[in-house]
Structure prediction request, 290 residues.
Amino acid sequence: HGDMGAVVPFSRIDDLKKDMLEVKSAGYHTDWLDRMVNHMTGDMGKFAPAEFQPNSLISIVIPSPKVILTFHHRGKPARCVVPPLYATWDSKNNQVLQTICDYLAPHGFSATIMKTVTQKLLAVHCGLAQYGRNNICYNDRFGSHMQIMTFVSDLPCDEAAWFPLRRMAQCETCRACVAACPTGAIDADRRYIDADRCITTYNEPASGAFPAWLGNDAHNSIVGCTRCQDCCPANAQNAGNETMGLTFNEAETMEILNASISETLRVKLTAAGYAPEFTDAFPRNLAALL
Prediction:
């Protein structure tokens, strides 16, 4: 199917928990990290599906190009970028799950989607990706233009390769993303980015005003950010890896800007693969871009 994947024992869940605790003990704190650590190490960490005994974790990476949305506003078209994976978040998970289950079923096994693990950590440990200095994962074939998925299965797996967490070797001498970040969130002397200064922290939630220090010229995508990916040498082969997405007429654009999205327009967005947790942020983010 043109994707890449790896299977490891389900017991590797314990290693992922240790990774998360180590990140937190290193002094890296965000609300997301705190929630994930509490989820993975506390009573909320329900990793075993009710329908079968979990024996393996399946990590999958698929290509996911940037998408260009066209909005018509005041008689002119405006092209807005949707970074990789936002347009395929749920739909592709379900498609790949069906492919896996179709293969496993004749052998008496099954699988289900697992969103409660740190997917980037697992992909790196499985050898499917490496980290960039920007804390984004890169695959040798897809660069950062990919979507990472995790599935849990009753497929037996006693042992498999488990790679150490690592950053791409070229990051050691490259500072392209440090220079390109519009908010200074990437520091060459830090292991992790400063998430409190990353645009994505502020334009993914559906509500809330942008902080005063975030200048208008920093906005570049209708959700998330692509500056550190666009300049990265590891994405050189993906420079033109984008696809044209939806086009919105003047009336639809105004619906979004006024946060009065009709049922017809919401159906259009949903059919294109955009989840409500992202499209609910479109009104504020589109206004900033325009």
Observations:
- The chain has a mean pLDDT of 90.
